[in-house]
Specification:
Lipocalin; mainly beta; 1 helix; 330 residues; 14-stranded antiparallel beta sheet
Length: 330
C-alpha cells in the first residue's frame, strides 16, 4: 500500500506539472484497438519448510520442495488511448483475454518421505548424485481469464535528431502495470513414484475443477522510449524497469483441501517494440511486441486442515506478446 500511495503521489504531481507547463499547447489524441497472442508461464517454487519434529527423517529444510508452473497462453483484445500535449504524453492500455484454454499446469514435489510397508521404515527417493528426485507429478487442464491494465506518463527529452526524411525522439517517464489472472484447473493425471518395489501409481482425473488460484502482478516502473518517424513509417522501442514488482497469490487445491496465500517482491523489466504504417492521414496499421520478465521472492502461508505454516517462495514469469493493431489519431 505504501508503494501504491507513493506512486499515486508521483502521478498527481506529474499531472499538475502537465497542466501548468503545457497550457498553451494543443492536445493530440490517438486511439488503438488490437488483437494479440500472449505466450508464457508463471512459475511458483516453495520450500524451506520448518520441519521441527514433524519430519520422520529429521531433515534440515531444503528448497525447492515443490513447483507449480502455470501457462498463461491466451488470445487478447486490446484498447489504448493516448493524449499528447506539448512535451507530455499519457497512455492507458487495457488487454483482456478472449480464450480460456491455456494448456496444462504442471506440479512437481521433491523429497516427500514414504513408509516402507514391509519394514515400517521411512525413506526418501534420491538420484545417484544424492539429490531428491520428483516424487509426485501432476498435470491439470487449465482455464485462465486475464486482465492487463497499463498506465504511463512520458516526457519528451530535449534531444531531437533530424535524420534524412525523418525524426528521432526519446521519452522518459513512469508507469504502472497491473495483471490479474484467474486460474482454474481440472486434474488430467497424477503420478506417484513413491514405492519400494518401483511401481508407479497413476491417478486419472475427471472434468471437475480441482484447483483455483487468483494471481495479481503489480509493476510500478520507470520507462525509457525511443521513437523514429521515417516518411509513413514509425518505429517505437522501449525498456521499462521496476525494482518494486509484487506478486500476490491466493487459492489452493480443492482436491487436497489445501489453501495458500503468498506475497513476493522483486524485479521486473518489460521490453517493447512496435511499428506503425500511415495508411491515411489519420489511420495507422501497426504491429507490436512486448517481453516481460519477473523475478521475485517472498513467503507463502499454507493452510491444511486448519494448520497454517509459513514457507519461502520464489515466483518468476516470462511472457511474450505479439499483436496487430489499428490506430486512429487526430
Amino acid at each position: 500500500m505504501i508503494k501504491l500511495n507513493y506512486f499515486l503521489s508521483l502521478v498527481a504531481a506529474a499531472l499538475v506539472s502537465l497542466g501548468v507547463s503545457v497550457y498553451a499547447d494543443e492536445y493530440k489524441f490517438a486511439f488503438t484497438i488490437g488483437a494479440s497472442w500472449l505466450d508464457g508461464e508463471i512459475t511458483f517454487q516453495e520450500g524451506n519448510l520448518p520441519f521441527g519434529d514433524d519430519d520422520p527423517l529429521s531433515r534440515e529444510p531444503f528448497f525447492p520442495m515443490r513447483e507449480m508452473e502455470i501457462p498463461v497462453d491466451a488470445a487478447l483484445v486490446s484498447f489504448e488511448a493516448e493524449i499528447t500535449k506539448g512535451n507530455w504524453k499519457a497512455r492507458a492500455d487495457t488487454r483482456i483475454s478472449v480464450t480460456e484454454d491455456a494448456g496444462d499446469t504442471e506440479y512437481s514435489d521433491w523429497g516427500v518421505p514414504w513408509q516402507d510397508p514391509s519394514t515400517s521404515e521411512w525413506q526418501v527417493r534420491k538420484d545417484e548424485r544424492g539429490k531428491y528426485t520428483v516424487d509426485v507429478f501432476a498435470r491439470e487442464d487449465t482455464d485462465i481469464d486475464i486482465t492487463i491494465l497499463d498506465f504511463a506518463l512520458l516526457y519528451k527529452l530535449p534531444y531531437t535528431i533530424d535524420i534524412r526524411k525523418g525524426t528521432f525522439l526519446s521519452f522518459l517517464g513512469f508507469g504502472y502495470m497491473n495483471m490479474d489472472y484467474n486460474v482454474e484447473g481440472s486434474l488430467v493425471q497424477q503420478l506417484d513414484y513413491r514405492d519400494d518395489a518401483g511401481n508407479l501409481f497413476s491417478r486419472l482425473g475427471t472434468e471437475e475443477i480441482t484447483s483455483a488460484y487468483d494471481i495479481t502482478i503489480s509493476i510500478p516502473y520507470i520507462a525509457f522510449i525511443i521513437e523514429e518517424t521515417l516518411g509513413k513509417f514509425q518505429v517505437e522501442a522501449g525498456i521499462n524497469f521496476s525494482p518494486f514488482a509484487d506478486v500476490e497469490q491466493t487459492g489452493g487445491s480443492l482436491l487436497g483441501g489445501e489453501t495458500v496465500s503468498g506475497d513476493s517482491d522483486g524485479n521486473a523489466y518489460i521490453a517493447t517494440l512496435n511499428g506503425k504504417y500511415l495508411w491515411t492521414k489519420h489511420w495507422f496499421l501497426g504491429i507490436d511486441f512486448y517481453y516481460l520478465n519477473i523475478d521475485t521472492d517472498g513467503d507463502q502461508v499454507v493452510n491444511y486442515g486448519g494448520n497454517a505454516t509459513t514457507i519461502e517462495q520464489e515466483v518468476d514469469s516470462k511472457q511474450f506478446c505479439t499483436g496487430l493493431t489499428v490506430n486512429y489519431s487526430y
